[in-house]
Amino acid sequence: MHGARGEFPEMMSVFDELRSAGFVPDVVTGNTLLAVFGQNGLDSEVSGVFKEMKKAGYIPKRDTYVSLISSYSRCGLFDQAMQIYKRMMGAGIYTDISTYNAVLSALAHGG
Nearest Cα to 101, choosing from 65, 75, 77? Predict the structure, then answer.
């Protein structure tokens, strides 16, 4: 809700509150942040969240890769979206229809 209305400081405040309460952000939390930032064209935040996820030890799976492909595409970073797709394929990650939809969208918008 907060991301759709563009209330990013409030959204990040809730995220910080989550961590302060002793909860460890999980992959769903990370993917949610990737999607929200991507939907709003905030590419540096997308990259930052992904770096934090990797730093926390998350190994990207299909849903994270799809979130990244979609997010970078929405930010206009089509080459980066396709690099993520190639990295996913190189890692042997199983693809599904959501993967191909994200790639097709990236290509249609400028990739």
Answer: 65
Contacts of 89 (CB under 8 A, 6+ apart): 95
CA dist 107 and 111 (Å) reads 4
CA angle 107, 63, 23 (to 5 degrees): 140
What amino acid occupies position 61? K
Residues 75 and 41 sit within 8 Å (Cβ to Cβ): yes
Q: Locate the domains of the chain by residue range.
A: 2-108
Which fold would CATH assign to domain 2-108?
Answer: 1.25.40
What CA–CA distances, in Å, run from 39 to 19, 45, 57, 58, 94? 24, 11, 25, 22, 24
- pLDDT, tens digit, for every residue of 5-63? 567 788 888 888 988 898 888 899 999 999 999 998 989 999 989 998 998 899 999 99
